[in-house]
Design brief:
Layout lengths: L11 E3 L5 E6 L12 E6 L9 E6 L9 H14 L5 E5 L4 H13 L7 H8 L8 H9 L4
Parallel strand pairs: 2-5, 3-4, 3-5
Antiparallel strand pairs: 1-2
């Protein structure tokens, strides 16, 4: 097991199971402290390489993932890895797509889908999950 995120660190959200995940906007500098060991980048274009293991999920700004099955698989992998790794989920600004992905991780962690957006807004950022279709995506995201 690697060193965990600092629960009080910038962008770190604690899921009910105790898993810690960091959300971030890629247009901002990397926060101080340890680097992620695994990240999922939610962008419309392929991101530049990073020195840690990462996946790219094609997800245009203010939209939904281009491939829902791929999104589910990558988010499941992020949730699984958060038990032992420093997992980061990041989009350009760090609110809409990142908040939506964090809410889906909360669903995987046992938060009811109709409460997951409120959970992420309370524990990550009050303006996370920006669009009505992102909120609907989370409500329809299930643990299967």
């Amino acid at each position: 097991m690697t060193e965990r995120w600092d629960p009080a660190g910038a962008g770190v959200i604690a899921l009910p199971s105790g898993r810690l995940v960091r959300g971030r906007g890629l247009r901002r500098p990397v926060p101080e402290g340890p680097e992620p060991t695994f990240s999922v980048h939610l962008l419309g274009r392929q991101p530049p390489p990073v020195p840690w293991e990462s996946l790219w999920l094609r997800w245009p700004d203010f939209r939904l993932p281009a491939d829902r099955a791929q999104a589910r698989a990558m988010l499941r992998q992020a949730w699984d890895r958060a038990a032992t790794d420093r997992v980061e989920v990041a989009c350009g600004g760090g609110r809409g797509r990142t908040g939506t992905a964090l809410a889906c991780l909360a669903v995987l962690d046992g938060v009811p889908a109709d409460e997951a957006v409120a959970y992420v807004r309370r524990h990550y950022h009050p303006k996370a999950v920006e669009t009505p279709w992102q909120r609907r995506y989370v409500r329809r995201f299930d643990r299967r």
